[in-house]
What we know:
There is one protein chain. By secondary structure, the chain is of the alpha/beta class. It folds into three domains: 6-59, Urease, subunit C, domain 1 (Roll); 90-205, Roll (Diaminopimelate Epimerase, Chain A, domain 1), CATH 3.10.310.70; 208-508, TIM Barrel, CATH 3.20.20.140. It contains 19 helices and 24 strands. Helix 2 packs across helix 8 (208-224), helix 3 (92-105) packs parallel to helix 5 (128-138) and helix 11 crosses helix 12. It is globular, with a radius of gyration of 23 Å.
Amino acid sequence: MSTKHADLVLTNGRIYTVDAVEPWVEAIAIADGRILARGSATEMSELAGAATRIVDLNGHFAMPGIVDVHNHVVMGGQAELFELALPRDARLDAIIALVREAAEKAEPGQWILGAAWGADAISELDNSAALAALDAASLGHPVCLRDETAHNRWVNSEAMRLSGISETTPNPDMGSFGRDAATGKLTGMMIEAAAGIVERVASTHFTEDMGIAAAAQAIKTLNSYGVTGFLEAASMQSVMAAVHGLDQRNALSAWAVMAMPAVEPNFLFGLAGDELFALRENYRGPHVKPDFVKIFLDGVPGARTAAFHEAYLEDPIHGCCFRGKTMVTYPDLVRWLGKCEAQGLAVKIHCAGDAAVSQALDAIDVVRSFNGPTDLIHHIAHASYIHPDDYKRFAELGVAADLSPMIWYPTTFLEGHRAVMGTERAEKFWPNADLIKAGALLAGGSDWPVIPNPDPWNGIEGLVTRENPSGAFAGQALWKEQAVDVATAVAIFTINSAKAIGIEALTGSLAPGKSADIIVLDQNIFEVPANRISRTQVLTTYFEGRAVFERA
């Protein structure tokens, strides 16, 4: 055992290390922000000196900090500080009432931005009568409301006017404007790339100071849920600047891995691709690692923009046999992957449909055949609908399944999918257990603010029960055979995610030499009934051995 004195000893606890060598210990000694040793309370007391701080855990459960493999920190902080919160189950009347309330308080000309209406509400909002109601409630203010997938928007006529969208404006590539089925008039529904036209105009009100404030707020929120590491999944230059700025001021209390978009996404604006990659070292810091690239390969099922092997249900717009399509060609995807690997960059590929997953795996397979083995771990982001023939390919190609957002149980997302895919296909959603059996690396993420908050305990419970932790959809479970046990769920949200984003040498488990990223909880999640895991609260979050969140 080390002869060095500890700065801090956490003792008298039930500490789960997520390390097979010594999974449970009573105490941990910390020095210089790193784990010095672990073991019994008696053993760790021997490392205490006159200046050592001793914290008695009083039998509380502790474990490694959560690593969120997929979120959008600035967007999350922005939503908390500056935007209108819409309940996921809000329908037209409730949305209209909330918009009117916000409009009555807004400054002249101020945009009203909000999220997130349920993906199953598209049909209720996508008509002229609904747009008229939104226009009346907005009192002349431009309005832009994101859906829960973050791929689509519902906007009012003033927002369309400011964005240059008229009845004669053609649909953009990889997107469309909603039109009333009876009249053909615009409804304010913005699908995929159409959403970006409005977001670009709305974003002009968002200042650099607001971005920094949003990033700081987001880190506080993440720490409050026990998150001490994350991958920011759409890291534009402004996002990297905000997070790097926190790190420079010693205010970044989490490991931050940045995924730079290969192509400018619909919801963030600025440099992308090679121009952005060339700047990445400017934003590297003690806790910031700009080592990933993000590619959006398809859209989302509810809007019929995800790419599938089998056709969607027939509808008046797409007719029969429509399967969606990818937004990047196969040759271009191969080129991007090869280019990124040459620069030491791993790639997170958004794939919501099973055909997009197959194409991504095919492209990675081709690049592997030319480049050979690599330590880079590419991600299939969302990994939700997967053809069974592809399960084993994740392990064969060393690809991580990025499980985000946390919706592997009945939700309004799923209701939207049933409406366009049919119930039988829609319910083959998130084959987590089958992926594990096939040897795949599964990593846990939130996709916050697509999910209202980055609460991992909701996600862990859902992985174990496949039931909605909120109590919604009572008595229903989604593909129960895909449930996993608590230990597996914890690993998915800690060491697996750390490995997937390249920081497993730093964090993800409580082992000597690793960062002292430790969370103390109000209950032992291994001992409570599975349907109570989501009620877990973090009492204290330690990052590099210092308390960065303490519950009052």
